Amino acid sequence: MNFEPTEEQRLLRESARSALVGLCTMPVLRKGFDDPAKLDAFAQALWASVAELGWTGLVVPEEHGGMGLGATEFAILHEELGRALFTGPYTVTAVLAAGLLQLAGCPASLRARLTDIASGAMRLALLEVQSGERESFFATCGHGGTVSLGTHRVPDAGVATHFLLLATEQVTSSHAGVGRLGMCLVDRSASGVTVESRESFDPTHTMGSVTLRDAPLDPGHFHVTELPAAQIARVLGDMRLARCSEMLGVADRALSETVAYVKERKQFGQPVGSFQAVKHKLADAYIALENSRTAARYAALARDAGAADALLALDVAEAMTSVMGIRVTGDCIQAHGGMGFTWESDMHLYFKRARWLASTGRGVGHARASIASAIVEGRVEF
Predict the structure, then answer these.
(1) Which of 136, 185, 206, 315 has the fewest Cβ atoms within 10 Å of its own Cβ atom?
(2) Domain check: are 195 and 236 in the same one?
(3) pLDDT over 90 at 140, yes or no
Protein backbone atom coordinates (compact mmCIF):
# COMPACT_ATOMS: atom_id res chain seq x y z
CA MET A 1 0.00 0.00 0.00
CA ASN A 2 1.47 3.34 -1.11
CA PHE A 3 1.50 5.90 1.70
CA GLU A 4 2.76 8.70 -0.54
CA PRO A 5 0.02 11.20 -1.43
CA THR A 6 -0.86 11.73 -5.07
CA GLU A 7 -0.27 15.05 -6.78
CA GLU A 8 -3.97 15.88 -6.40
CA GLN A 9 -3.85 15.09 -2.69
CA ARG A 10 -0.78 17.29 -2.19
CA LEU A 11 -2.57 20.13 -3.97
CA LEU A 12 -5.61 19.63 -1.73
CA ARG A 13 -3.43 19.91 1.38
CA GLU A 14 -1.57 22.98 0.13
CA SER A 15 -4.70 24.79 -1.03
CA ALA A 16 -6.55 23.99 2.20
CA ARG A 17 -3.70 25.21 4.39
CA SER A 18 -3.33 28.38 2.36
CA ALA A 19 -7.06 29.13 2.46
CA LEU A 20 -7.48 28.45 6.18
CA VAL A 21 -4.64 30.80 7.10
CA GLY A 22 -6.85 33.66 5.94
CA LEU A 23 -10.27 32.23 6.78
CA CYS A 24 -9.89 30.88 10.32
CA THR A 25 -7.64 33.11 12.37
CA MET A 26 -7.02 32.99 16.10
CA PRO A 27 -7.88 36.68 16.75
CA VAL A 28 -11.32 36.21 15.19
CA LEU A 29 -11.92 32.98 17.08
CA ARG A 30 -10.98 34.65 20.35
CA LYS A 31 -13.55 37.42 19.81
CA GLY A 32 -16.28 34.83 20.07
CA PHE A 33 -15.16 33.18 23.30
CA ASP A 34 -17.24 35.44 25.53
CA ASP A 35 -20.19 35.65 23.14
CA PRO A 36 -21.39 32.37 21.56
CA ALA A 37 -23.59 34.30 19.16
CA LYS A 38 -20.51 35.96 17.66
CA LEU A 39 -18.77 32.60 17.31
CA ASP A 40 -21.87 31.11 15.64
CA ALA A 41 -21.99 34.06 13.24
CA PHE A 42 -18.32 33.57 12.41
CA ALA A 43 -18.90 29.83 11.88
CA GLN A 44 -21.73 30.55 9.45
CA ALA A 45 -19.58 32.99 7.48
CA LEU A 46 -16.76 30.46 7.49
CA TRP A 47 -19.16 27.81 6.23
CA ALA A 48 -20.09 29.96 3.24
CA SER A 49 -16.40 30.28 2.38
CA VAL A 50 -15.65 26.56 2.52
CA ALA A 51 -18.79 25.84 0.48
CA GLU A 52 -17.44 28.13 -2.25
CA LEU A 53 -14.22 26.11 -2.17
CA GLY A 54 -16.24 22.93 -2.73
CA TRP A 55 -15.23 21.26 0.53
CA THR A 56 -18.83 20.62 1.60
CA GLY A 57 -19.20 18.28 -1.37
CA LEU A 58 -15.90 16.48 -0.97
CA VAL A 59 -17.39 12.97 -0.60
CA VAL A 60 -20.77 13.68 -2.23
CA PRO A 61 -21.17 11.89 -5.61
CA GLU A 62 -20.71 14.00 -8.71
CA GLU A 63 -24.33 13.50 -9.79
CA HIS A 64 -25.36 15.43 -6.67
CA GLY A 65 -22.92 18.27 -7.25
CA GLY A 66 -19.99 16.95 -5.25
CA MET A 67 -16.46 15.76 -5.97
CA GLY A 68 -16.95 12.09 -5.17
CA LEU A 69 -13.63 11.74 -3.36
CA GLY A 70 -12.74 9.24 -0.66
CA ALA A 71 -11.54 8.80 2.89
CA THR A 72 -7.93 9.67 2.12
CA GLU A 73 -8.99 13.09 0.84
CA PHE A 74 -11.31 13.97 3.71
CA ALA A 75 -8.62 12.79 6.13
CA ILE A 76 -6.11 15.16 4.53
CA LEU A 77 -8.58 18.04 4.72
CA HIS A 78 -9.38 17.31 8.36
CA GLU A 79 -5.72 17.52 9.30
CA GLU A 80 -5.73 21.06 7.96
CA LEU A 81 -9.02 21.86 9.70
CA GLY A 82 -7.43 20.70 12.95
CA ARG A 83 -4.37 22.87 12.42
CA ALA A 84 -6.65 25.89 12.04
CA LEU A 85 -8.98 24.95 14.94
CA PHE A 86 -11.82 25.11 12.44
CA THR A 87 -15.21 25.77 13.98
CA GLY A 88 -18.54 24.54 12.65
CA PRO A 89 -20.40 21.28 11.92
CA TYR A 90 -18.27 20.26 8.95
CA THR A 91 -17.57 16.65 9.94
CA VAL A 92 -21.17 15.82 10.80
CA THR A 93 -22.51 17.41 7.62
CA ALA A 94 -19.93 16.73 4.92
CA VAL A 95 -18.68 13.33 6.13
CA LEU A 96 -21.18 11.55 8.40
CA ALA A 97 -24.45 12.74 6.87
CA ALA A 98 -23.10 12.52 3.32
CA GLY A 99 -22.14 8.91 3.98
CA LEU A 100 -25.40 7.94 5.67
CA LEU A 101 -27.47 9.33 2.81
CA GLN A 102 -25.59 7.06 0.39
CA LEU A 103 -26.38 3.86 2.29
CA ALA A 104 -28.33 1.13 0.54
CA GLY A 105 -32.08 1.56 0.78
CA CYS A 106 -31.99 5.26 1.65
CA PRO A 107 -35.14 6.81 0.12
CA ALA A 108 -34.76 9.18 -2.81
CA SER A 109 -36.25 12.05 -0.79
CA LEU A 110 -33.41 11.81 1.72
CA ARG A 111 -30.73 11.08 -0.86
CA ALA A 112 -31.75 14.26 -2.69
CA ARG A 113 -30.50 16.27 0.29
CA LEU A 114 -26.97 15.39 -0.81
CA THR A 115 -27.31 18.29 -3.24
CA ASP A 116 -28.02 20.66 -0.34
CA ILE A 117 -24.99 19.30 1.53
CA ALA A 118 -22.72 19.72 -1.48
CA SER A 119 -23.88 23.30 -2.07
CA GLY A 120 -23.46 24.26 1.58
CA ALA A 121 -27.16 25.08 1.94
CA MET A 122 -27.53 22.57 4.78
CA ARG A 123 -25.57 22.54 8.05
CA LEU A 124 -26.23 19.54 10.26
CA ALA A 125 -25.60 19.05 13.96
CA LEU A 126 -25.68 15.49 15.31
CA LEU A 127 -28.15 14.42 17.98
CA GLU A 128 -27.48 10.81 18.96
CA VAL A 129 -30.55 9.09 20.37
CA GLN A 130 -29.86 7.42 23.72
CA SER A 131 -30.62 3.77 24.47
CA GLY A 132 -33.77 4.49 26.48
CA GLU A 133 -35.28 6.49 23.62
CA ARG A 134 -34.39 4.22 20.71
CA GLU A 135 -37.48 2.03 20.45
CA SER A 136 -39.89 4.96 20.29
CA PHE A 137 -37.51 6.71 17.90
CA PHE A 138 -37.38 3.70 15.56
CA ALA A 139 -41.16 3.57 15.58
CA THR A 140 -41.38 7.27 14.74
CA CYS A 141 -38.83 7.00 11.92
CA GLY A 142 -40.66 4.01 10.53
CA HIS A 143 -44.02 5.78 10.20
CA GLY A 144 -43.34 9.52 10.30
CA GLY A 145 -45.24 12.10 12.29
CA THR A 146 -43.59 13.92 15.16
CA VAL A 147 -40.61 13.14 17.35
CA SER A 148 -40.06 13.91 21.03
CA LEU A 149 -36.75 13.50 22.83
CA GLY A 150 -35.30 14.70 26.09
CA THR A 151 -32.70 17.44 26.30
CA HIS A 152 -29.39 16.66 24.58
CA ARG A 153 -26.14 18.61 24.54
CA VAL A 154 -25.29 19.12 20.86
CA PRO A 155 -22.06 20.70 19.55
CA ASP A 156 -22.56 23.49 16.99
CA ALA A 157 -26.33 23.50 17.60
CA GLY A 158 -26.42 27.26 17.15
CA VAL A 159 -24.90 27.03 13.66
CA ALA A 160 -27.08 24.19 12.34
CA THR A 161 -29.96 24.60 9.91
CA HIS A 162 -31.09 21.04 10.66
CA PHE A 163 -30.49 18.33 13.23
CA LEU A 164 -29.50 14.83 12.19
CA LEU A 165 -31.17 12.45 14.62
CA LEU A 166 -29.41 9.11 14.59
CA ALA A 167 -29.87 5.79 16.39
CA THR A 168 -28.11 2.47 15.82
CA GLU A 169 -28.25 -0.89 17.53
CA GLN A 170 -26.94 -4.39 16.97
CA VAL A 171 -29.67 -6.83 15.94
CA THR A 172 -27.48 -9.94 16.06
CA SER A 173 -24.48 -10.34 18.32
CA SER A 174 -21.92 -11.85 15.95
CA HIS A 175 -19.17 -9.75 14.41
CA ALA A 176 -20.67 -10.17 10.94
CA GLY A 177 -24.22 -9.64 12.18
CA VAL A 178 -27.00 -7.23 11.30
CA GLY A 179 -27.53 -3.75 12.64
CA ARG A 180 -30.55 -1.48 12.69
CA LEU A 181 -30.19 2.18 11.83
CA GLY A 182 -32.72 4.96 12.14
CA MET A 183 -32.20 8.54 11.07
CA CYS A 184 -34.22 11.63 10.32
CA LEU A 185 -33.74 15.31 9.64
CA VAL A 186 -35.46 17.93 11.76
CA ASP A 187 -35.52 21.58 10.74
CA ARG A 188 -34.09 23.75 13.49
CA SER A 189 -36.84 26.34 12.89
CA ALA A 190 -39.64 23.75 13.20
CA SER A 191 -42.18 23.97 15.99
CA GLY A 192 -41.28 21.98 19.07
CA VAL A 193 -37.53 22.52 18.65
CA THR A 194 -35.81 24.46 21.44
CA VAL A 195 -32.12 25.39 21.42
CA GLU A 196 -30.38 27.01 24.37
CA SER A 197 -26.74 28.07 24.40
CA ARG A 198 -24.47 26.26 26.87
CA GLU A 199 -20.85 26.69 27.92
CA SER A 200 -18.46 24.48 25.98
CA PHE A 201 -15.25 22.88 27.26
CA ASP A 202 -13.69 23.76 23.90
CA PRO A 203 -14.28 27.50 23.45
CA THR A 204 -13.65 27.24 19.68
CA HIS A 205 -16.89 25.21 19.37
CA THR A 206 -20.25 26.35 20.66
CA MET A 207 -22.56 24.00 22.51
CA GLY A 208 -26.34 23.96 22.76
CA SER A 209 -29.02 22.12 24.71
CA VAL A 210 -31.57 20.81 22.22
CA THR A 211 -35.04 19.68 23.27
CA LEU A 212 -37.62 18.18 20.89
CA ARG A 213 -41.30 18.20 21.85
CA ASP A 214 -43.58 16.90 19.08
CA ALA A 215 -41.24 18.27 16.44
CA PRO A 216 -42.62 17.43 12.96
CA LEU A 217 -40.61 15.31 10.56
CA ASP A 218 -40.47 16.54 7.00
CA PRO A 219 -42.25 14.05 4.71
CA GLY A 220 -39.77 11.54 3.35
CA HIS A 221 -36.92 12.75 5.54
CA PHE A 222 -36.84 9.76 7.88
CA HIS A 223 -35.60 6.23 7.43
CA VAL A 224 -35.18 2.94 9.31
CA THR A 225 -33.27 0.05 7.82
CA GLU A 226 -31.43 -3.12 8.69
CA LEU A 227 -28.01 -3.56 7.11
CA PRO A 228 -24.89 -5.63 7.70
CA ALA A 229 -23.37 -4.33 10.93
CA ALA A 230 -19.99 -3.91 9.23
CA GLN A 231 -21.51 -1.63 6.59
CA ILE A 232 -23.06 0.63 9.22
CA ALA A 233 -19.80 0.59 11.19
CA ARG A 234 -17.84 1.71 8.13
CA VAL A 235 -20.06 4.75 7.57
CA LEU A 236 -20.10 5.70 11.23
CA GLY A 237 -16.36 5.05 11.26
CA ASP A 238 -15.84 7.80 8.70
CA MET A 239 -16.54 10.38 11.39
CA ARG A 240 -14.14 8.63 13.75
CA LEU A 241 -11.46 8.70 11.05
CA ALA A 242 -12.13 12.39 10.43
CA ARG A 243 -11.72 13.12 14.16
CA CYS A 244 -8.46 11.13 14.24
CA SER A 245 -7.13 13.16 11.33
CA GLU A 246 -8.24 16.41 12.92
CA MET A 247 -6.38 15.39 16.07
CA LEU A 248 -3.21 14.99 13.99
CA GLY A 249 -3.57 18.55 12.72
CA VAL A 250 -4.17 19.94 16.21
CA ALA A 251 -1.10 18.19 17.65
CA ASP A 252 1.07 19.05 14.65
CA ARG A 253 0.23 22.76 14.87
CA ALA A 254 0.80 22.86 18.64
CA LEU A 255 4.15 21.08 18.28
CA SER A 256 5.30 23.28 15.40
CA GLU A 257 4.54 26.46 17.34
CA THR A 258 6.22 25.05 20.44
CA VAL A 259 9.41 24.14 18.59
CA ALA A 260 9.56 27.67 17.18
CA TYR A 261 9.01 29.09 20.69
CA VAL A 262 11.74 27.07 22.43
CA LYS A 263 14.22 28.09 19.75
CA GLU A 264 13.65 31.76 20.56
CA ARG A 265 12.96 31.73 24.32
CA LYS A 266 16.20 31.99 26.27
CA GLN A 267 17.21 31.23 29.85
CA PHE A 268 20.74 31.47 31.25
CA GLY A 269 21.79 32.85 27.87
CA GLN A 270 20.69 29.70 25.99
CA PRO A 271 17.57 28.80 24.00
CA VAL A 272 15.39 26.62 26.25
CA GLY A 273 15.13 24.18 23.37
CA SER A 274 18.78 23.28 23.91
CA PHE A 275 18.04 21.86 27.39
CA GLN A 276 17.69 18.09 27.46
CA ALA A 277 14.52 18.13 29.54
CA VAL A 278 12.81 20.17 26.81
CA LYS A 279 14.24 18.76 23.60
CA HIS A 280 13.84 15.13 24.67
CA LYS A 281 10.19 15.71 25.60
CA LEU A 282 9.49 17.36 22.24
CA ALA A 283 11.39 14.63 20.38
CA ASP A 284 9.19 12.02 22.08
CA ALA A 285 6.14 14.08 21.15
CA TYR A 286 7.24 14.13 17.51
CA ILE A 287 7.72 10.35 17.46
CA ALA A 288 4.26 9.82 18.97
CA LEU A 289 2.76 12.18 16.39
CA GLU A 290 4.40 10.45 13.44
CA ASN A 291 3.43 6.98 14.68
CA SER A 292 -0.17 8.13 15.01
CA ARG A 293 -0.04 9.76 11.59
CA THR A 294 1.03 6.45 10.05
CA ALA A 295 -1.82 4.61 11.78
CA ALA A 296 -4.42 7.16 10.66
CA ARG A 297 -3.18 7.24 7.08
CA TYR A 298 -3.28 3.46 6.85
CA ALA A 299 -6.84 3.51 8.21
CA ALA A 300 -7.85 5.97 5.46
CA LEU A 301 -6.15 3.95 2.72
CA ALA A 302 -7.69 0.73 4.02
CA ARG A 303 -11.13 2.37 4.02
CA ASP A 304 -10.75 3.46 0.39
CA ALA A 305 -9.41 0.07 -0.66
CA GLY A 306 -12.18 -1.82 1.11
CA ALA A 307 -9.55 -3.83 2.98
CA ALA A 308 -10.68 -6.57 5.34
CA ASP A 309 -8.86 -4.93 8.24
CA ALA A 310 -10.26 -1.43 7.65
CA LEU A 311 -12.32 -1.34 10.86
CA LEU A 312 -9.48 -2.80 12.90
CA ALA A 313 -7.12 -0.20 11.44
CA LEU A 314 -9.58 2.49 12.50
CA ASP A 315 -9.64 1.16 16.06
CA VAL A 316 -5.83 1.28 16.14
CA ALA A 317 -5.81 4.83 14.76
CA GLU A 318 -8.40 6.03 17.28
CA ALA A 319 -6.59 4.44 20.21
CA MET A 320 -3.28 5.98 19.18
CA THR A 321 -4.37 9.46 18.14
CA SER A 322 -6.59 10.03 21.18
CA VAL A 323 -3.76 9.35 23.61
CA MET A 324 -1.19 11.12 21.46
CA GLY A 325 -3.20 14.32 21.00
CA ILE A 326 -3.77 14.89 24.70
CA ARG A 327 -0.17 14.03 25.55
CA VAL A 328 1.45 16.17 22.85
CA THR A 329 -0.67 19.27 23.46
CA GLY A 330 -0.14 18.88 27.21
CA ASP A 331 3.64 18.62 26.72
CA CYS A 332 3.52 21.74 24.53
CA ILE A 333 1.92 23.67 27.39
CA GLN A 334 4.71 22.49 29.68
CA ALA A 335 7.40 23.52 27.19
CA HIS A 336 6.00 27.07 27.19
CA GLY A 337 6.63 27.31 30.92
CA GLY A 338 4.45 29.68 32.91
CA MET A 339 3.31 31.42 29.71
CA GLY A 340 1.70 28.20 28.51
CA PHE A 341 -0.85 28.30 31.34
CA THR A 342 -2.03 31.84 30.63
CA TRP A 343 -5.11 32.89 28.71
CA GLU A 344 -2.89 34.81 26.27
CA SER A 345 -1.21 31.59 25.06
CA ASP A 346 -2.92 29.56 22.34
CA MET A 347 -1.59 26.28 23.71
CA HIS A 348 -4.55 25.67 26.01
CA LEU A 349 -6.86 25.96 22.99
CA TYR A 350 -5.08 23.12 21.21
CA PHE A 351 -5.18 21.08 24.41
CA LYS A 352 -8.91 21.66 24.86
CA ARG A 353 -9.63 20.80 21.24
CA ALA A 354 -7.62 17.58 21.66
CA ARG A 355 -9.59 16.67 24.80
CA TRP A 356 -12.86 17.42 23.03
CA LEU A 357 -11.93 15.31 19.99
CA ALA A 358 -10.91 12.41 22.22
CA SER A 359 -14.34 12.52 23.87
CA THR A 360 -16.36 12.52 20.63
CA GLY A 361 -15.38 9.06 19.41
CA ARG A 362 -16.11 5.70 20.98
CA GLY A 363 -13.19 6.21 23.33
CA VAL A 364 -9.77 4.69 23.83
CA GLY A 365 -11.14 1.91 26.04
CA HIS A 366 -13.70 0.82 23.45
CA ALA A 367 -11.11 0.91 20.64
CA ARG A 368 -8.65 -1.17 22.64
CA ALA A 369 -11.38 -3.65 23.55
CA SER A 370 -12.24 -4.05 19.86
CA ILE A 371 -8.59 -4.67 19.04
CA ALA A 372 -8.33 -7.26 21.82
CA SER A 373 -11.49 -9.01 20.58
CA ALA A 374 -10.08 -9.18 17.06
CA ILE A 375 -6.91 -10.81 18.40
CA VAL A 376 -8.80 -13.32 20.58
CA GLU A 377 -11.18 -14.22 17.74
CA GLY A 378 -8.30 -14.75 15.32
CA ARG A 379 -9.20 -11.87 13.02
CA VAL A 380 -5.67 -10.48 13.27
CA GLU A 381 -2.65 -12.09 11.64
CA PHE A 382 0.83 -11.40 12.99
Answers:
(1) 136
(2) no
(3) no
